[in-house]
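To assess whether the prediction recovers the assembly geometry, we first specified each molecular entity separately, as shown.
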Amino acid sequence: MADYKNEFGVFAERPKVPKKIYDAKYVIAGLIVFFALATFTLWPNLGKTIPAPQPKLDTPVIQKLAAADRKCVLPTPEMRSTHMQMLVDWRENVVRSKEKGAPGVREFVTPDGKKYLASLTNTCMNCHSNKAEFCDTCHNYAAVTPNCWGCHLETGKKLAEAK
Amino acid sequence: MGMDRREFIRLAGLSALLGLGGKGALEIVRPGQAEAAFEAEPKALEGKRWAMVVNQKKLDEQTAAKCLAACHRVHNVPNYKNPPDAKLALDPEVANRYEIKWIWTEHFHNAFPGEEHDHLADSVKAMPFMLLCNHCANPPCVRVCPTKATFQRDDGIVMMDMHRCIGCRFCMAGCPFGARSFNWRDPRPYVKDQYPGYPTREIGVVEKCTFCVERLAQGLMPACVEASRGVLTFGDLADPKSPVRELLRTYFTIRRKAHLGTNPQIYYIV
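The predicted structure of the complete assembly is given in tokenized form:
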């Protein structure tokens, strides 16, 4: 290996490194194992389209309603997109009612003038007593975990039976 | 398309007006359409300063037990001392530490520390005193709560918003009456019969008596008052004709630790 010289000084010749992967079989095997581990959770769904969830509406309470009355407190598209915000509003209005400056309100009036008690357990879950087929289908699909059920009971079923 | 300066300013001004007006502007054009409105329930009990008078002269163990049972049933209060399933049985010491207290009984020397002396009337010594949150007019728990999860309502009720409670337990340190309990574990398995209309609590939040705000909103008296058959009297202190004012006028009453300045609103006829 001969030294070389330029205007900056005298330098050692760059060592000649062969262009190859050292321990190629281990490296490649390791890479394969890594990708396998990193992606194996995706394999079962590979190439499949997961159908959009179909929340079920066939609960006893809804079945009993006349066809004309079979609607939620707000139009369906609005409920679909903003029910979480509505529930938060209900919560603030009910729990913090009569806090200084807050209105004391527990009733929700729909655009067409119907009145409902603003309550997840007593109003929503009364009709939608099938949490597993109604709430959970979409929540699981969208991978959201609302923490309502830590405290609020799924008692729509019991209420329906009691009535 | 060109636009001269005058036209541009006119358009910008109009858009700004619309933008600032927003919902208000829409409200003028189409009143009541922007948003479905909330209304107060017509039959709710209204008061300016709720308070309770406990007539200790009439209170006996059975009535006290009935009041406790009524409250704990409608609020899904867990029972760690007598769990619904033998498998859930806890060490007595642990069960004692986990205990959730909305309403409970205590002897005079515990309920009114500093007021007792060696020669107390036998009847008072043996009496179970009905204790619950005092719904103080000057509540220290509200002052110390860092998230405003505990707040005072216009009608004097000291209320809890479980959604906001972060479980710091400052309120428990602040309350001189021991009226607040912490959920050291998930209480649900220890609730014997889940009452469908009311939520349970989660691990990590503090809870206490709420003077049954949910029942007042439906026009009902608090559960303990209803079960007590006249031993407990609930009413509006601001109304001179209310039953509580009537009792306070007629009888001499004491309050727990009134010298601490929290202005407790549970009055005891002894």
